[in-house]
Design a protein that fits this description.
Endonuclease III, domain 1; 220 residues; mainly alpha; Endonuclease Iii, domain 2; 54% helix; single chain
Length: 220
């Protein structure tokens, strides 16, 4: 199947973008009642921050698999801040780009200790001032940890935003801006989590299951 740039069933979606988002949110909620972050961070904000950085160009499943041993050896920011990069690399090797990730995680840990007293900052500006933390990770932290819902525009959300007609761009920031305009604040974190699950299981980048798409199988 060719790469799908637009949802083949877009005619079934409401034309107004806010109504379209509401329709999709109801459908996704029906499919995925529990909207949770796929990274198993056990309620630890620092752990989520590290895992989110490791997930770049890597699957959440792989990050979840290596995390128990990683955090048993380096349980907190202080442990990571004093880590030898070579040793840390051995724990995260399978996540890819391990040298750069190890360097950035050590630097980020030191910044959290030196600038924020060991606490995770709670604003996007402060979060993105940390080494290796962009708006995608910052928004994930805001929504999942600090109850300040924000759009997380990962590769799945960017692809679906284009296919659903919200933003005809692959630029992360443009997608964030477009979705913020049509998604209620209270729905932003859950909508993104559910969209990611849908993107992985059904609306894949290659060979999406358009003919059997579950979004349109029931009245929502």
């Amino acid at each position: 199947m060719k790469r799908v740039l637009k949802c083949p069933k877009s005619a079934l979606l409401p034309r107004a973008k806010k109504a379209r988002q509401a329709f999709l949110s109801r459908a996704l909620t029906r499919l995925y009642p529990c909207a949770e972050c796929a990274l198993q961070y056990e309620g630890d904000p620092f752990r989520l921050l590290v895992m989110a950085r490791l997930s770049a160009q890597c699957t959440d499943a792989r990050v979840n698999a290596i995390s128990p041993a990683l955090f048993a050896r380096f349980p907190d920011a202080y442990a990571f801040a004093s880590a030898e990069q070579a040793e840390l690399e051995t724990y995260i090797f399978s996540t890819g780009m391990y040298r750069e990730k190890a360097r950035q995680i050590i630097a980020m840990s030191r910044e959290i200790i030196e600038r924020f007293g060991g606490e995770i900052p709670q604003t996007q500006k402060e979060l993105t001032s940390l080494t290796g933390v962009g708006t995608k990770i910052a928004n994930l932290m805001l929504g999942d940890v600090f109850s300040k819902p924000a759009i997380v525009a990962d590769t799945h959300m960017i692809r679906l935003s284009r296919r659903w007609g919200f933003c005809d761009s692959d630029n992360q920031h443009k997608v964030e801006e477009a979705l913020e305009k049509v998604t209620p604040v209270s729905d932003r974190a859950d909508f993104c989590h559910r969209a990611v699950l849908f993107g992985r299981e059904c609306c894949r980048a290659q060979n999406p299951s358009c003919e059997t798409c579950p979004l349109f199988t029931e009245e929502v």
